[in-house]
Write a structure and sequence with these properties.
Distance between the termini: 22 Å
CATH topology: Rossmann fold
Radius of gyration: 17 Å
Number of helices: 8
Largest sheet: 7 strands, parallel
CATH architecture: 3-Layer(aba) Sandwich
CATH class: Alpha Beta
Number of domains: 1
Order of helices and strands: EHEHEHEHEHEHHHE
Strand order of the largest sheet: 3-2-1-4-5-6-7
Helix content: 40-55%
Oligomer: single chain
């Protein structure tokens, strides 16, 4: 970890915010749930895996934070609506949302990939983001709010990733830009584009492709793998009132990868 990076910072950045986080059962989503709670938010954790959600939620509530979970497949619009409705019911409204749920596919030449692999990635990364934005924006229109979508450096530049993943993360940025019309109604939508970050998905890719992590390190001025909490900090700031004039942006959190 970079010298000076405070993993325990509690600035009250999100005090009073009522939050929903997808993909919250591990990795960046779980880190965001902890960070948002530490900084004053009430958080609904959303993911498909109930066991992991229950463990993290219990950890947070044991520390005195306000947290709950909703088992949800973001590719199913009716399940997303139930989760958003649950957040509103529990907290009295929804102020911020971090659409972090994502899926990948094993890298392979495009012409050799199965259609099912493409469809599975698109279902979570694109349709899932669409479903979340649709219902979150509807819940926020009365009082305003902020949304951050999790894209990737693969949504900005070519990377050693599967074509469906690259296409899906470009689409997430497109959806983010398409939602700028809501800024005039008090709902800000932005995106982040993480670089190489420690997560279950990345760990699986590294295990299947020896040397890939070092290859990715060589592509960034900061040649290391990010801690998920570093990505969560960027999302937290964009969701906070401190970012009140940031709309439709995609912020790289990539160790300088896209700056080259």
């Amino acid at each position: 970890m970079t010298k000076g990076f405070d993993m325990t910072a509690n600035s009250g950045l999100l005090t009073g915010k009522r939050a929903l986080i997808t993909g919250a059962s591990s990795g960046i989503g779980a880190a965001a749930a902890r960070l948002f709670c530490e900084n004053g938010a009430s958080v609904l954790l959303v993911a498909r895996r109930e066991g992991e959600l229950a463990v993290i939620t219990k950890e947070l509530t044991a520390k005195g934070f306000t947290a709950a979970y909703a088992v949800t497949d973001v590719s199913r619009t009716e399940e997303v609506k139930r989760a958003v409705d649950r957040a509103v019911e529990l907290f009295g409204g929804l102020d911020i949302a971090f659409n972090n749920a994502g899926a990948g596919a094993a890298p392979a030449p495009l012409h050799l990939m199965e259609d099912a692999d493409f469809e599975a990635v698109m279902a979570t990364n694109v349709l899932g983001t669409w479903n979340c934005m649709k219902h979150e924006i509807a819940a926020m229109l009365a009082n305003g709010g902020a949304i951050v979508n999790n894209s990737s450096v693969a949504g900005l530049v070519n990377t050693p990733a599967a074509a469906p993943y690259i296409a899906s993360k470009h689409a997430v940025i497109g959806l983010t830009k398409a939602a700028v019309e809501y800024a005039a109604q008090g709902v800000r939508v932005n995106a982040i584009a993480p670089g190489t970050t420690r997560s279950e998905m990345m760990g699986q890719w590294f295990d299947l492709n020896p040397g890939l992590e070092q290859q990715l390190h060589a592509m960034a001025p900061l040649p290391r793998t990010a801690d998920p909490r570093e990505i969560a900090y960027a999302a937290a700031w964009l969701l906070s009132d401190q970012a009140s004039f940031v709309v439709g942006a995609t912020v790289p959190v990539d160790g300088g990868w896209t700056a080259r």
